[in-house]
């Protein structure tokens, strides 16, 4: 039947009806809050390109996480910035690394908090790439041991979820094997499976001081123009190698990929609403061009509707506050 017999506006005529019939609902449980941790004391440094996002020293991190937990957020993702960098990213996997210290501290203070750690070398290498370098090339197989070593050090510190973001071939299998061998078979592995060489990462590179010193990351991260089938294959391989959760990154421009992953796989799907996406909304709202709250909540609803089971976003703390106001 068509109009006038069918009138879809009947189902929208008041708020109670709209609430009853809504099919996509976001809750605070959907979100992981990324945080940056640095060495030193009494440091809380706002990232200029990411208003409202900070680098925290360990003593300041506890208070910041306490505020996050009070909002009902149950999970954080930790990125570490070392004091010194070298060609092999030593700071990523040493026992006294900044992430390892942060995990131990947070697990002591907040034992029920789900701690996710980023497993990569780019924040720790002097060249800013996610793997070892030889003659200007990023080495794949030789990097796997260091990634596995990094993941193991995070698990030993108490991380609940390790999240390799490097996009080296075979890194999920290498990490899963190392974790299982050392008795950490219950540590969850969340793979950045469809991670694109995106233009949306700029503010993060300021936050993590991880800009490549030469070239770019296009030989290992995916081409934004690539086929959906490539994303499916990357994700399928990660699942076969032992990934418990798979991720699409970035989120906004890749909702089609999120939806495809949700349709293809039974594994939980995460999406990462990245720094550039965050900063665009913050800049526009600060200029009065958009309403930040309504735009962010609409975007998160879209990501959930596309198929995201988990959303990693720098908006998480604000979202938690807004949801409490409802």
TrEMBL record:
It catalyses: 2 5-aminolevulinate = porphobilinogen + 2 H2O + H(+). SUPFAM superfamilies: Aldolase (SSF51569). Keywords: Heme biosynthesis, Lyase, Magnesium, Metal-binding, Porphyrin biosynthesis, Zinc. Its cofactor is Zn(2+). CDD domains: ALAD_PBGS. 5-aminolevulinate 1 binds at residues 205, 217. GO terms for biological process: protoporphyrinogen IX biosynthetic process. GO terms for molecular function: porphobilinogen synthase activity; zinc ion binding. Mg(2+) binds at residue 234. GO terms for cellular component: cytosol. The active site is at residues 195, 249. 5-aminolevulinate 2 binds at residues 275, 314. PROSITE patterns: D_ALA_DEHYDRATASE. Pathway: Porphyrin-containing compound metabolism; protoporphyrin-IX biosynthesis; coproporphyrinogen-III from 5-aminolevulinate: step 1/4. Its EC number is 4.2.1.24. Belongs to the ALAD family. Homooctamer. Catalyzes an early step in the biosynthesis of tetrapyrroles. Binds two molecules of 5-aminolevulinate per subunit, each at a distinct site, and catalyzes their condensation to form porphobilinogen. This is Delta-aminolevulinic acid dehydratase. It comes from Desulfonispora thiosulfatigenes DSM 11270. The lineage of its organism: Bacteria, Bacillati, Bacillota, Clostridia, Eubacteriales.
């Amino acid at each position: 039947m068509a109009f006038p017999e069918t009138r879809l506006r009947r189902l929208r005529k008041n708020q109670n009806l709209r609430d009853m019939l809504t099919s996509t609902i976001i809750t605070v449980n959907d979100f992981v809050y990324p945080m940056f941790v640095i060495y030193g004391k009494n440091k809380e440094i706002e990232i200029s390109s990411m208003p409202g996002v900070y680098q925290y020293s360990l003593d300041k991190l506890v208070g910041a996480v306490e505020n996050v937990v009070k909002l009902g957020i149950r999970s954080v993702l930790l990125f570490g910035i070392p004091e010194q960098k070298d060609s092999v990213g030593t700071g990523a996997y040493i026992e006294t690394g900044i992430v390892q210290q942060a995990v131990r501290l947070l697990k002591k203070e907040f034992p029920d908090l789900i701690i996710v750690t980023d497993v990569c070398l780019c924040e720790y290498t002097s060249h800013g790439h996610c793997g070892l370098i030889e003659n200007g090339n990023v080495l794949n197989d030789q990097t796997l041991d260091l990634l596995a070593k990094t993941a193991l050090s995070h698990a030993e510190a108490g991380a609940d979820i390790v999240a390799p973001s490097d996009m080296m071939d075979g890194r999920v299998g290498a990490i899963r094997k190392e974790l299982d061998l050392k008795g950490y078979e219950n540590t969850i592995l969340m793979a950045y499976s469809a991670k694109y060489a995106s233009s949306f990462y700029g503010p993060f590179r300021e936050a993590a001081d991880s800009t490549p010193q030469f070239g770019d990351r296009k030989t290992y991260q995916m081409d934004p123009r690539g086929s959906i089938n490539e994303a499916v294959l990357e994700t399928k391989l990660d699942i076969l190698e032992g990934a418990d959760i798979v991720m699409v990154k970035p989120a906004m421009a890749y909702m089609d990929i999120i939806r495809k992953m949700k349709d293809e796989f039974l594994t939980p799907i995460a999406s990462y609403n990245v720094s550039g996406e965050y900063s665009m909304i913050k800049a526009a709202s600060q200029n009065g061009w958009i309403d930040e709250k309504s735009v962010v909540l609409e975007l998160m609803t879209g990501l959930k509707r596309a198929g995201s089971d988990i959303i990693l976003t720098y908006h998480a703390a604000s979202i938690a506050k807004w949801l409490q106001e409802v």
